[in-house]
Design a protein that fits this description.
316 residues; alpha+beta; Deoxyribonuclease I, Chain A; 6-stranded mixed beta sheet; 6 helices
Length: 316
């Protein structure tokens, strides 16, 4: 038996009655990508939630319409939720689609790392909370050990809002911009730490667990968030905890294919699939679907497809 697992930032997937024609344009661009992936498990980022009618709670209408009539129709779906209500939020939900039953699911939001407190140079007491949760599911694979999948979308390296920082969309000073950028960095690295601690807890109970951490990390392989999640021996500076490492499967790609985004002409790998050692041993191939990506710094929005190329790993 094989398992095809993919991660894909689907770039603000949305739907409304008024914009149904634009949704169909996007669907025509996105469905061939999903067909090429042929995933058994698909981790998506940036799935928006919609009200089908004004009196109904939000649901993933756009996602349902996108996969309707495709091989993904009928897959089991887990998604992140509003912290106070049993429904998705309006923007940037996480979703995991699985051919096989999803036995358990939970979202992780400040379960291991509490919101950070920081007093700015201006004397403002700020609470630094994550922008969205991480999503963890356990999937029952026939004839194989359960698979633990963590789907996450870390904060982008763009300055976060600070009091008085922007007026009419423009930064008022480089001093405040620098503080906003610092806060964005804290958010990204602290949430990577939170998911790492969740993985540590899981591996302490099940040292041979099959674990995948994937998604849009908004960080390259050499940056702190990715290194926090991986905990590779060269960073921990000992081989004593080698079994706890999450191995970067994208390292198996040819060097010229190790990218999922193009930014100002530079090819960067922001989307990752990391796997525990017992699962990494079963990985037979990795593919990045990155042909023809538009440059995200130069692209004219809105974009019909996505500015991210999905990553696909196949496990035997």
């Amino acid at each position: 038996m094989s398992c095809r697992l993919a991660t894909f930032n689907i770039e603000s997937l949305d739907w409304s009655q008024d914009q149904s024609a634009w949704f169909e344009t996007r669907a025509k661009a996105l469905r061939p990508i999903l067909d090429d992936l042929r995933p058994d498990i698909l981790c998506l980022q940036e799935v928006h939630g919609q009200h089908l009618t004004p009196d109904q709670p939000r649901s993933l209408v756009a996602l349902s319409k996108l996969i309707d009539g495709t091989a993904l129709a009928g897959f089991h779906i887990a998604h992140s939720q509003h912290p106070d209500r049993a429904e998705p939020v309006d923007k940037h939900n996480l979703a995991i689609l699985s051919r096989w039953p999803i036995e358990t699911q939970r979202q992780i939001l400040h379960d291991y790392v509490q919101p950070l407190r920081w007093r700015s140079p201006e004397g403002e007491d700020l609470t630094i909370a994550f922008d969205r949760p991480a999503l963890h599911v356990q999937i029952a694979q026939p004839g194989a050990a359960p698979l633990h999948v963590f789907n996450l979308h870390l904060r982008a390296p763009r300055a976060a809002p600070v009091p008085g920082g922007r007026i009419q969309g423009q930064w008022t000073s480089t001093k405040l911009w620098a503080q906003g950028y610092f806060i964005a960095t804290l958010k990204r690295q602290a949430q990577a730490l939170e998911v790492r601690l969740a993985v540590e807890e899981l591996l302490a109970r099940q040292p041979q667990a099959h674990v995948v951490v994937c998604g849009d990390l908004n960080a390259e392989s050499f940056e702190a968030p990715t290194r926090l999640l991986q905990a590779l021996p060269e960073d921990v500076e000992t081989n004593a905890f080698e079994a706890r490492a999450l191995l970067p499967l994208e390292a198996r790609l040819p060097p010229d294919q190790r990218f999922s985004v193009v930014h100002n002409g530079r090819k960067v790998l922001l989307d990752h699939i990391l796997a525990s050692a017992p699962l990494a041993e079963r990985c037979s191939s990795v593919t990045a679907l990155n042909d023809g990506l538009a440059d995200e710094a130069l692209a004219t929005e809105p974009v019909a497809g996505s500015l991210h190329g999905p990553l696909l790993a196949i496990f035997d």
